[in-house]
Amino acid sequence: MFRVALLFLVLAVPALAAPPVPTGGVTIVAAETVYAGVARAIAPDGTRITALIANPAQDPHLFEAGPDAARWLSRADIVIYNGAGYDPWMRDLLAATASGRLREVINVADLVHAGAGANPHIWYDPQTGLALATFLAARLSALEPQRAAQIDANLAAFRASLAGLRKAMDDLRTRHPRVRVAATEPVFGPMLAALGYQSLDPGLELAVQNNVEPAAAGYGGLLDALRAHQAAALIVNTQAETDLTRRLMAVARQSHVPIVSVTETEPANMTYAAWLSREVAALGAALDQPR
């Protein structure tokens, strides 16, 4: 189970009442900043977009959904959430929050056919962002046909922004094919899979993600692998550090294994393509280091 703390302060009917909604335009509410970012790239001018997890430093697994989240959902025309067990609080919150405006609920994992047991950090595969952008453009054009031309132009620009990311990924695969890395969590797993790279100990990553003690043999084996330079880099989720992950980082530094820091939440003032491109560039810089 994920480390999810739920705080639903939506028991009283007045807390669920929709506040006044400005006329005109569509309101989109996304659970995560990454999906709000995709929506901002696609939606026409005048669209109101918010992310429920608005703090880039917030560990999404520890998010507490309170009355503000319920009020935003009560205004929503379109709701976007990750699915795949990543944000299960959204299902309960949607069920508890009546909205006469709601036209569409987009479960992104369902959209990209990420089934049970899949790595839920699906946004790190660029195909996920493209799939959401394409689907969202079609739905927005249906809701606001008078703005379809702007939505189509926005989608074309979004596709173009991903072209540079794909080129960077292709270049990295060419320079460093079939790389093996260590990771403290599976957050970067979909990008590693898209690159054709292998993680040394997925079981330990899942244990850290789920806040359970990993098997001693696996943990010790990963430390030995870092000391023996069997991992080309150590991928670290900077939003979920623990004593265990700090120990892995310390051994990596002592063994001169480069550390690549990634985030689970899209940083403020960055686009989807720019964020993923930054992470790919950081991995490339680490792998380019002489050994």
Helix and strand arrangement:
Elements: H1 13-16, E1 27-30, H2 33-42, E2 48-51, H3 67-75, E3 78-81, H4 89-96, E4 104-107, H5 108-111, H6 126-143, H7 148-175, E5 180-183, H8 189-195, E6 198-199, H9 202-209, H10 216-227, E7 234-237, H11 243-254, E8 259-262, H12 272-288
Helix pairs in contact: 2-6, 6-7, 7-12, 10-11
Q: What's the CATH topology label of the largest domain?
A: Rossmann fold
Q: Which CATH C-level class of the largest domain is it?
A: Alpha Beta
Integer count of domains: 2
- Helical content, roughly? 40-55%
Radius of gyration: 20 Å
How much β-strand is present in the residues? 5-15%
Q: What gap, in angstroms, lies between the N and C termini?
A: 38 Å
Strand order of the largest sheet: 2-1-3-4
SSE class = alpha/beta
Q: Tally the helices: what do you get?
A: 12
Sequence of secondary-structure elements: HEHEHEHEHHHEHEHHEHEH
- Give the rounded overall mean pLDDT: 88
CATH superfamily grouping of the largest domain: Nitrogenase molybdenum iron protein domain
The shape, in one word, is globular
Number of strands: 8
Task: Return residue spans where pLDDT drops below 50 for at least 5 consecutive residues.
Answer: 1-23
